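Summarise this fold before class:
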Amino acid sequence: MIEMKNVQKTYPNGVSAVKGLNVKIQSGEFVYVVGPSGAGKSTFIKMMYREEKPTSGTITINGRDIANIKDRKVPLLRRDIGVIFQDFKLLNNLTVFENIAFALEVTEEKPQAIKKKVMEVLELVGLKHKVRMFPNELSGGEQQRVAIARSIVRSPKLVIADEPTGNLDPDTSWEIMKIFEEINSLGTTVIMATHNKDIVNTLQHRVIAIEGGLIVRDEQKGEYGYEL
């Protein structure tokens, strides 16, 4: 599903964030991306949805070289990718329903279809009863559930999560991980950058470790491997 060949990223300030990455990720995999702060994890993640563009090399998703597509085609690319952030990025002036529906309205879905899809994903994340509430009326965990619902409402084949439990307490983090496990069990590829050692070691999946911009470890059913 995803292939990187000789991918390098050097920022304008001269910092070399990733240095010749080569990796393949198959459809339906669940992959943790781990490593020390500043190792290049976020750059690795961001290049997959073209938040960052590689300096050289190729990134192919479903046979399409996304490193070289025109900027105006990036929004179309992102329709097939769900992205979840540590800080939720919800629109505070919109209700839970409206935040999720917004992702469908930009693709001009019919109102009836939008309502059906929004309620289905709210059922999956356990928030149907909060449909009319605003983000500031929700807990952090509930806000992250809304963010997850928004990211999967278009049924993407790929979900990318950058530290999705970073701002959550341990109990809430486990609840969020159950949702990611469910999403993955339905066939969606999940790629998650995380510093959560307990989650990685307990819910074992493939682990890609990045240090100094290089992949130093790539293991099926791997462990976190770093002391916190």
Remarks:
- The beta strands are 2-10, 16-25, 30-34, 56-61, 64-65, 81-85, 158-162, 189-193, 206-211, 214-219.
- The chain has seven helices and ten strands.
- The chain has a mean pLDDT of 92.
